[in-house]
Amino acid sequence: MNRQRGLALSALMVWGVVIALVAILGIRVLPEYIDYYKIMHAVKAVAAESSGKTVGEIRQAFGKYAEVEHLKTIGPADLDIFKDDNEVVVAFTYEKRIPLVANVSLLIDFQGSSTGRNYGR
To answer: Phi/psi of residue 88, each to 5°?
Structure first.
């Protein structure tokens, strides 16, 4: 006699819930990471063009990049600009709270710099 193989309705429902939760988490978190990578791209572009510029001019250049890319998360005043080994470093750090369900939120700390090293505040 052949044994039937398959998935019970309860197991199918459990897997459906798990997949739905993962999908909701991905849908909520993915835009924040896309925004982070846009900020990283703008910071690296501004730092690459920063030779001979003042801190104010670097902030103004980032403001223009942020306006074009529609970045509302951080502004020019949120940047840390300093020199490290005769190289201009533009660093930033911010946190983003993502509401998931009811009173449950996900808090992500983003930080980055134009050199690839993470400089914390």
So the answer is: -75, 125
